[in-house]
Amino acid sequence: MGAVTVITSGKGGVGKSTLTTGLGLALVRRGRRVLLIDGDAGLSSLDLMLGVVERQVFTIADVAAGEADPVKSIYACEWAPGLFLLPAPSREEDIISPEIMKQLVAALAKYYDHVLIDCPAGVGSGFYSAVAPAQRALVVSTPDPVCLRDCNKTRMALEDAGVRQQRLVVNRFNKKSFRNLGAYRDLDAVIDVSGIRLIAIIPEDPALAAAAASSGPAPLKSAGSMAFGRLAARLEGEQVPLAIKG
């Protein structure tokens, strides 16, 4: 049974989908078989980022409705063997109910080492659908007051949904910008505001945005890719440093 992790945030635009893709690729590079589930109905992006949009016919909504076999609805990423995608519904009206989501993910997780669910921002119906089957959550935030305030709200919503194993990912971190912002004295203050234990710091890295735009992988030695590699190791229980770079 694969580990089921939801990647969520309180605010949109913090880089959840980029993180989901980068973490999935990092786990594949560790020899794992990984399924990404796009839970962002109507605003999906993982199909574009993984380069499967031209092949896509069915989505998770078709599977849940019994109109498509999961085998036909899960698409392999051609540039990352071992990485697979179950696309989001094209309409918000087709959001999967939490109970069906639990059953579906439990059935699929048997065939993968990791299932990563890309959750829509905020705490609406899509959020509760995405978090329903999760064993743990990565809460993504940029190091600014607005994102961190919403991050704290997300922490409480996850607890209400029964997901108590939570870790914070500080994304798009740049040391100079962080110091110039002056909102927090250090990263310990950021952690205190979020109320969540830190697991990773992903540096601001133009290579990640370029990779997403080109539907391909970021260079293995880019700062962002190496940070995803450290996150993958820590997620699997290894003791590796955060190695902050900005």
- Topology-level CATH name: Rossmann fold
Task: Supply the CATH superfamily name.
Answer: P-loop containing nucleotide triphosphate hydrolases
Which consecutive residue ranges, at least 5 long each, have pLDDT under 50?
none
- pLDDT averaged residue by residue: 90
Sequence of secondary-structure elements: EHEHHHEEHEHEHEHHEHH
Number of structural domains:
1
Task: Give the overall silhouette.
Answer: globular
Secondary-structure-derived class: alpha/beta
The CATH architecture comes to 3-Layer(aba) Sandwich
The largest sheet, given as strand count, sense and whether it forms a barrel, is: 8 strands, mixed
Structure report:
The protein is an alpha/beta fold and 246 residues long. The protein has a single domain (3-235), classed as 3-Layer(aba) Sandwich (Rossmann fold), CATH 3.40.50. 40% of the residues lie in helices and 17% in strands. Strands 3-4-2-5-1-6-7-8 form an eight-stranded mixed beta sheet, with helices on both faces. β6 (136-141), α7 and β7 form a beta-alpha-beta unit. The longest helix has 16 residues, at 145-160.
